Amino acid sequence: MTTDDSTDxxxxxxxxxxxxxxxxxxxxxxxxxxxxxxxxxxxxxADAVAERVEQLRADGVDAxxxxxxxxxxxxxxxxxxxxxxxxxxTTVLVNNAGIELHGNTWELPVDHWHRVIDINLNGVFHxxxxxxxxxxxxxxxxxxxxxxxxxxxxxxxxxxxxxxTKHATLALTECLAKELEPVAPFIAVTAVLPGSVKSxxxxxxxxxxxxxxxxxxxxxxxxxxxxxxxxxxxAARIIFEGVARGDLRVHTNPEASRRFIAERAAALxx
Length: 270
Known about the structure:
The chain is an alpha/beta fold and 270 residues long. It has helices at residues 23-34, 46-58, 73-86, 110-138, 160-183, 213-228, 232-245, 254-268, and strands spanning 14-18, 38-43, 63-67, 92-95, 101-102, 142-147, 187-193, 206-207, 249-251. It has a single domain, classed as Rossmann fold, CATH 3.40.50.
């Protein structure tokens, strides 16, 4: 879907953002506010989004917050109902909530594996399931934005759970775009493949070892984020500009993505 590439079109629209309490999600909230959007902030950390909404309202932004655990489909259904009761529409839905997990696959605790799958992948599905039928019924221009990762373009030891969810999120998003094109061409679909963006994601990441693949994976990624990571507001600008264009994929670090795609293509060739 090709659209006007001006983010001015989002002014007065409604942005719904999961994982809005920190990192990329918080950056997206700030940028949506700059664009003059009404914003629904969703996060499992209620305190973080409640405090942010107070700040937004003090600045004149029309905003609401809800505590949402994206693992629970009922939480997303309630969020969607509240958004439509409040504003009657959704312009941009961002399925952003995500967590990390590090360690050799065979050593990962089963409950931690399922937690990553439930948040990073099922959480995206739950957002789609709750909002897209309402978007279709609305019949107006809208955008579904699913946050994947450059991890969808490569594989590394100690990251199997996270990489699996991000590969799957990219595939899910591409399938959704093809499904919506014939029935609701006014809904654009975008997969975001961020490179390193500064956030607290590694602070809460579970690591299965202290000196093995998991710890090394976390150390490398955390160091890269600290040294070269984009500020969340800069990542948010790139994302909103790509969404406004109707891009199917948005890369916050195109050079890294091109390198990983080339490496992946070479590895898959026969």
